[in-house]
């Protein structure tokens, strides 16, 4: 595996000099695979995002896109995951069925995926950079002795058909494009919400290639005794919120966070922050947005008193509309915000809350007088 700093003028030159011959037995590897992750019987949304990205890669390479599902036979979640893979763009699905795969355990999942790869020889294998995906991708890559690029923010196919997997490096100050030159499959993990979710197309189907798992329970060291849900996992849904209001050091003191929270609540959004606020202990870590925090993709992102450092930017780049409030008209956030407001956020936040409260009250009133169709 070779890593090169992404410079559009020099990347091809430096990569060409580092090119290693792909061993003959990998030259027939075909197709793009996406591992469909099941979380308590539900497909994790990152799998849909990866199918969207996988579709683009497969079309560029002129190959097929496959969804890979592992789970117990006759399980609603497994069957549903296979159907959803087709609905989100897969041409075919691989299904490994075994009672050993009912809960995530590294050993049987690694065995299922590596056996499948050895048999069907994909060119590219993508997984979500979730807790499960990170654990599984690492063990599959090491078992297969192939290259894995973790936490990618961009995936592309080079002129010669190699996967160009780009991810932030050196604390986010550089983007690095990594190639797997001499082994297959080329593996990558992508964080949830980094890629867009493709349109779901109902009533789609395709071939399903079924396999069993050649493993017995006695070979599995890990035993699942029970499942305790994370007490806090229900609390924050920043990654999937449509509206996010976030604050940075520019909000001054911890007490001013209340202004942020009230505005977020008024407009039906979540609230978040830049990293220094977590470091100060003003907000919980699961509200941090950015490279070492959450990646978000809201319809509206309102950033108050945030400078727009690259480590923050990578977490919000997918937002449809970015509104930034900053006293400094040269703040870097204005380079990528769609709406730039040069103002004191501490005064503007409550003014926005008042304006939205009024506007929403008027809207409710008019809806009561003229109810919408179907109400
Ligand atoms: C390895 C690594 C990982 C990192 N990961 C993350 C990450 O995940 N997320 C993240 O956010 N950061 C991350 N950082 C930190 C990042 O580099 C920045 O330091 C951080 O984002 C800056 O936070 P800020 O914008 O709140 O503060 P500052 O950069 O200090 O910006 C404050 C801004 O507020 C403005 N301002 C001041 N007063 C007001 C006012 N009254 N009204 C309006 N605006 C005002 C200022 O003009 C300034 O632009 C990481 C850094 C490293 C090295």
From TrEMBL:
The keyword Cell membrane does not apply. Pfam families: ETF, ETF_alpha. FAD binds at residues 274-275, 288-292, 305-312, 326. The keyword Transport applies. It comes from the Bacteria. Residues 32-224 form the Electron transfer flavoprotein alpha/beta-subunit N-terminal domain. CDD domains: ETF_alpha (cd01715). InterPro entries: DHS-like_NAD/FAD-binding_dom, ETF_a/b_N, ETF_a/FixB, ETF_alpha_N, ETF_asu_C, ETF_asu_C_CS, Rossmann-like_a/b/a_fold. Its cofactor is FAD. Keywords: Electron transport, FAD, Flavoprotein, Nitrogen fixation, Plasmid, Transport. Binds 1 FAD per dimer. Belongs to the ETF alpha-subunit/FixB family. May play a role in a redox process involved in nitrogen fixation. FixA and FixB form a heterodimer. This is Electron transfer flavoprotein alpha/beta-subunit.
